[in-house]
From TrEMBL, chains A, B:
Organism: Sphaerochaeta pleomorpha (strain ATCC BAA-1885 / DSM 22778 / Grapes)
One GO process term, biological-process aspect: carboxylic acid biosynthetic process
Matches recorded under InterPro entries: Aminotrans_IV, Aminotrans_IV_CS, Aminotransferase-like, BCAT-like_C, BCAT-like_N, Class-IV_PLP-Dep_Aminotrnsfr
Protein name, UniProt field: branched-chain-amino-acid transaminase
Reactions catalysed, as given in the entry: L-valine + 2-oxoglutarate = 3-methyl-2-oxobutanoate + L-glutamate; L-isoleucine + 2-oxoglutarate = (S)-3-methyl-2-oxopentanoate + L-glutamate; L-leucine + 2-oxoglutarate = 4-methyl-2-oxopentanoate + L-glutamate
Keyword Lyase included in the entry's annotation: yes
Cofactor: pyridoxal 5'-phosphate
PANTHER family per UniProt: AMINO-ACID AMINOTRANSFERASE, AMINODEOXYCHORISMATE LYASE
Top-level taxon of the source organism: Bacteria
Xref: SUPFAM superfamilies: D-aminoacid aminotransferase-like PLP-dependent enzymes
PROSITE patterns: AA_TRANSFER_CLASS_4
Family: Belongs to the class-IV pyridoxal-phosphate-dependent aminotransferase family.
Length: 270, 270
């Protein structure tokens, strides 16, 4: 286990004690928000960005609490220190209600085999729309079911398709596709405002690539209208897609890997 | 507190120990199902129906577990016995994953003032569609937010309206409306298959009332096309609606109260 401890409302506790009562109504209803943050070389990467998004998630679902971002920052650092975390994935969870609770826990840093980046990953589409896509909340059953469905077919990620047939995002990633040299991704109001998504856009612009905020249609992706696809997430940076619903895309994924490299560089400069 | 104990995977524990780890992925994703059952005179009302629906909810989201309905029945009775419960609301929660967990807890029986039945309750519509409406799962943020929005306006319940403008159901109730002597409610595939909803339909038929499975449009309700409205739930039986978005409906709610009376009678005969 990476962490022996956790933080509850600012107090260091044993991780085993980081629990919620099953009789808590807010737990039952998933009235909660969260963020996952990479710790690299003992530093929480882009923490301020994650806390800003946590604020937005709380505002979006009217979850009031009195935890300040300064406190949350201190608590993340306290957990890093008490468990001497060098590389880890830290999760901040805020549960709402009359007596809001904040938990900070740590898990091993997620990293993927090099082959995923060289060869790309297998994906499958899944029809479904998230409630309040710009908020990270405990309302995640669609994401869970979509990912399970993709895994049953041997996939690594599921891509969520809305009623208009557009691919908006993955279950734990944002989605990007190249077409005639331009980079397409869903408009910001329709998807999670990924901290890494912002970095991907910046990296693309830095490389002289135009970014178009239009959601690719699943049928156009399957018919080969796009020539290089990838997903982005805190844990993945930018990861090439090998196939969507069996339609495969040949590597080398040069442009994706250039963006991936840039995103990882920025993590260390933060 | 009504209950000092709870049951976890068949074992009687202190209620305070009925907790879930915040690091449990299935807890984080709301990959769970539940049922709430009224205990009256020490007997769990319509328990077999509730367990049948729990099965359907688990099947619907592909949640596998090995708890049999015989076991669940025994565990509910064990909790009733150990805490000498006479009147209570018992909740069965099943959390999925590699190591599924089942919790049975009890809370005070919910009952409402007589005035709610005499005068009806204030409701407000809320636009939003539930994921897999026929399953009772931990994916309840829409219900939570809709109910909070109604409460902020002084309402007792929120009525969920889909993209077609139809009122499908309440956040914790089914919805019914009379028009020219016929009783209208949403088609079964669009809503939660309420255990009490079934009883309401039976009671209506017993009273010679035709039941039409068509969802009333919110605009038709607001314009007065329907003349008596009510919501139904395990905790409410059938409760008249005084107003929807400020459009009020005059009592006495004779037909609703006749149905309510019949539903409560059947609870004792179970």
């Amino acid at each position: 286990m990476v962490a022996e401890h956790a933080v509850r409302n600012g107090v260091i506790i044993k991780e085993a004690d980081a629990t919620l009562s099953v009789t808590n109504r807010e737990v039952q209803f998933g009235f909660s928000t969260y963020e996952s943050i990479r710790v690299i070389k003992g530093r929480p990467v882009h923490l301020a960005d994650h806390l800003r998004r946590l604020d937005k998630s709380c505002e979006g679902i009217f979850l009031s609490h009195s935890f300040t971002n300064e406190e949350l920052t201190n608590w993340v650092h306290a957990l890093i220190q008490v468990d001497s975390l060098v590389e880890a994935s830290v999760r901040i969870l805020v549960v709402g209600g009359k007596d809001p609770q904040c938990f900070i826990t740590a898990a091993p840093l997620i990293s993927y085999p090099d082959s995923y980046y060289r060869e790309g990953v297998v994906t499958f589409t899944y029809e479904g729309e998230r409630l309040m896509p710009s908020c990270k909340t405990g309302n995640l059953l669609l994401n869970y079911m979509a990912l399970e469905a993709a895994r049953r077919q041997g996939g690594f990620e599921a891509l969520l398709v809305n009623r208009e047939g557009e691919i908006l995002e993955g279950t734990r990633s944002n989605f990007f596709a190249f077409r005639e040299g331009k980079l397409y991704t869903a408009p910001s109001e329709k998807v999670l405002l990924g901290v890494t998504r912002d970095r991907v856009v910046q990296a693309a612009l830095k490389n002289g690539i135009e970014v178009v905020y239009e959601s690719p249609l699943a049928k156009d992706v399957r018919s080969g209208l796009y020539d290089e696809l990838f997903i982005s997430a805190t844990s993945m940076a930018a990861m090439p897609i090998y196939s969507v619903d069996g339609k495969s895309f040949a590597g080398p994924f040069t442009r994706t890997l250039a963006i991936c490299h840039q995103v990882r560089e920025w993590e260390l400069e933060d």
